[in-house]
Amino acid sequence: MNNYEFYGIALENVFLFFVILAFSFLLHIVVFSRRVRSVLDPYFLPVVSSVFCFTVVGLLYFTSNISTYVFCNYLLTQFTFILGFCTFSRVKFTSGSQKSLTQPRNYLIAFYFFSIVYLISQISIYILKGIPLLMESRLETFASGGGTGVIGRISDVSSVFSLYSFFLVIKIDKLRISEFPKYIILVLIFLTFILSGSKSTFLLVLQVFWCFIFFSKLKGWAYLGFQELLRKNIKYLLILSLIVVTAIISIQSSNVEPDVENKLNPLLALMLRFVHSGDVYWYAYPNDVYLSIPSNQWFAALFNDTLGLLRIMDWGSLPEAVGITLKDIHHPSDIPQGPNARHNVFGLIYYGFFGSLIFSFFIGFVISFVRNLLPKLLPSTMLGGFLFTYLICKISAFDSDPMLTITYINNLFFIFPILYIMYLLVSECLNLIKIAHEN
């Protein structure tokens, strides 16, 4: 089923669509409200996305466009995912004295180091490939190699650590001229997020801020000033987010040939983007189209990025991303784009009915571990905060796009150690120079 066929079904059954949407909304509140309490929580948007996915699948089933087999598989994989997601109990904070952060000079070096690395990598991408916001598909940025893949990995890792270290070094009690360079760098980073063309990437600034407060609160660091700052400005930040999202949608709509989606005003287009959270289901489930995708390379499909990065397999022999394959079946194009292969569809294709249940439970289990147990195990250091923030931000995509999440994990394991060692060397050299000057 292509996009326009689904739009027709939705318009013919508007009342049913909104009934299922309301039920899905209430169901997700019951399941997730105690575990996802902030709109800045990195897992908030995936929950909102899941609300619309449930609605799409329900509409397809109750209009007799998908079989009971795939509908039951969807429900059961969602159930086992939630079981995994609830494996570890939610983090509980204990009240106590707040400790001031130590080693401020090293934090400052970390901020400037990772910020410079990030901005240089982004400028390199713009020079080599162009600006993603102005492309028909952001995936074109890294589609043809040319070294931009590695630069993209460096950019991905350094962006999070730059933002996290910003909150370590910024002073919020009053505005100081000496703080201006830090704010200028933050604005530059924010602009690169907008130029990325992603409707959610720019929210990384707020999500990292939330992670910083969360980790500080857990480890007994001083956080009340930041929490109060966030509380006072949350409404303005959300309004700004809405403005930025609509602006991105407007710019992207002007880059492509006009169609039904691009004729909508930006706010309606934003709503349609939420509905498109479930596009992989109307591509894959009706007429059992998912069966047309070869399922024999299940390991290579999940660890596509790992096998290619380590040159264990040639990139050309690795399975194509499920979303791109499904999109090309219904909307053939030379542009590399497509929906996220959500865990239900990915698992059903590569692991079968019962295997997909185990796969979905595993994904929920991993997300639960990262959100609830990992922060307790990590040390109360800058590195501990780095790792927690990166993982909780990136692992939130595991149920919506398993392959992409494996890419993020590879970036952490293979790219971050190199960058961190470079930071330690730079930090040590600067400290030695400082000691030499003092003597």
TrEMBL record:
The keyword Membrane applies. Keywords: Membrane, Transmembrane, Transmembrane helix. Signal peptide: none annotated. The chain crosses the membrane at residues 6-31, 43-62, 68-88, 109-128, 180-198, 204-224, 236-254, 348-370, 377-397, 403-426. Coiled coil: none annotated. This is Oligosaccharide repeat unit polymerase.
